[in-house]
């Protein structure tokens, strides 16, 4: 009987790879339970958490007209949450149940992302309050105190993970750590920062930042080299739920959270998941003028409907072609803060046997033999 039980337990355990101590942490949406009271040992009978410093409220300054979204160029996002860019300071206010006394009170901030936060993976970030901030490194300092409230300036790392973080305030007591309860209103989205020199996506031209990050409409060229057509395209990277839809694409691609601070990794996995082939990605392509159970590629005028449909259904959206893939990919990149633009290419050579030339085989009548000719020009 004991052998049967142990076999069943083995089946229930999540598969672990190699030396990994925890399952893969590749979903921004999944959460774990964080204890509000973390006792150091047995609590004395007279212990009452209300006797110690306690957080009453947290103000995030997250409205479009307030300082954080204004300074971080995120005021266009249609979202009630705080959205900031990494490597740049932002502000919050903490209201306590009594005046904060730095001589005896000790508290710190905790930013967590994903289900299995780890400090060495950059998915659990404890921040002690100090006297100064170092550019491009996590830190916090008090910039104003009044009655029971303090205002903190927080600096995020210029290389930190990009995504939606949960915020907790932890207070130290002699008997254990008291944390704030889970409050989704304090969730903080951290994006790439083309305005920060220490960020890998830094762009030093303000006009280019305006165009390649903040502009939400553009022109897409299509057609063929002898009949070039253009159409307007709504990227819509600031529209409601688009940021969450873009973060979901990285979950769909199963990109580890610890790798989401690297723009190269993000670009590679996103370029794959935009296409539905092999991985059930965003858009199903069709080039044979048959669009059964879907929409013709020419009917799309923007990325928003496509991304929201995929986000809600989790099934490929039918149908797209080159410019549709490009438009949606551009929305994804700009939404996360990676500067991007569309480039249209005509007469594109497909060298299928990698000999760096185009091979065309003719039949005995001098016509193209389509059975053995694999190279093409699109």
Automatic annotation (TrEMBL):
What cofactor does this one take?
Ca(2+)
Give the EC class as a word: transferase
Q: What GO molecular function annotation could you give as one example from this UniProt entry?
A: protein-glutamine gamma-glutamyltransferase activity
EC number of the protein: 2.3.2.13
- Please tell me where this protein is predominantly located: cytoplasm
**Domain Transglutaminase-like per the UniProt entry, residue ranges:** 314-378
Locate the region Disordered.
Answer: 1-33
What the protein does comes down to: Factor XIII is activated by thrombin and calcium ion to a transglutaminase that catalyzes the formation of gamma-glutamyl-epsilon-lysine cross-links between fibrin chains, thus stabilizing the fibrin clot. Also cross-link alpha-2-plasmin inhibitor, or fibronectin, to the alpha chains of fibrin.
Q: What is this protein called?
A: Coagulation factor XIII A chain
């Amino acid at each position: 009987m004991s052998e049967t039980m142990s076999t069943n337990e083995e089946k229930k355990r999540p598969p672990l790879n190699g030396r990994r101590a925890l399952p893969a942490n590749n979903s921004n949406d999944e959460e774990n339970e964080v204890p509000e009271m973390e006792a150091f040992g047995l609590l004395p009978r007279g212990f009452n958490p209300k006797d110690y410093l306690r957080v009453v409220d947290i103000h995030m300054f997250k409205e479009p007209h307030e300082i954080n979204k204004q300074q971080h160029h995120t005021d266009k996002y249609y979202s009630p949450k705080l959205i900031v860019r990494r490597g740049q300071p932002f502000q919050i206010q903490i209201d306590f149940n009594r005046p904060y006394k730095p001589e005896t009170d000790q508290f710190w901030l905790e930013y967590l992302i994903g289900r299995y936060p780890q400090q060495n993976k950059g998915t659990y970030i404890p921040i002690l309050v100090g006297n100064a901030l170092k550019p491009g490194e996590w830190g916090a300092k008090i910039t104003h105190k009044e009655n029971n409230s303090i205002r903190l300036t927080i600096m995020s790392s210029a290389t930190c993970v990009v995504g939606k973080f949960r915020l907790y305030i932890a207070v130290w007591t002699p008997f254990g750590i008291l944390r704030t309860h889970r409050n989704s209103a304090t969730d903080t989205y951290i994006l790439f920062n083309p305005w920060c020199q220490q960020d890998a996506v830094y762009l030093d031209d303000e006009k280019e930042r305006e165009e390649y990050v903040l502009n939400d409409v553009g022109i897409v060229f299509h057609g063929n080299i002898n009949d070039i057509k253009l159409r307007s395209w709504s990227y819509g990277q600031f529209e409601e739920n688009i940021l969450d839809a873009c973060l979901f694409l990285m979950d769909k691609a199963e990109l580890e959270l610890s790798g989401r601070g690297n723009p190269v990794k993000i670009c590679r996995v996103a370029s794959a998941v935009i296409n539905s082939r092999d991985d059930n990605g965003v858009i199903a392509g069709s080039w044979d003028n048959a669009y059964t159970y879907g929409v013709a590629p020419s009917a799309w005028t923007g990325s928003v409907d496509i991304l929201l449909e995929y986000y809600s259904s989790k099934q490929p959206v039918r149908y797209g072609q080159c410019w549709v893939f490009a438009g949606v990919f551009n929305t994804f990149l700009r939404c996360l803060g990676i500067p991007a633009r569309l480039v249209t290419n005509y007469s594109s050579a497909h060298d299928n046997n990698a000999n760096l030339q185009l091979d065309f085989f003719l039949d005995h009548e001098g016509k193209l033999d389509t059975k053995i000719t694999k190279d093409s020009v699109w």
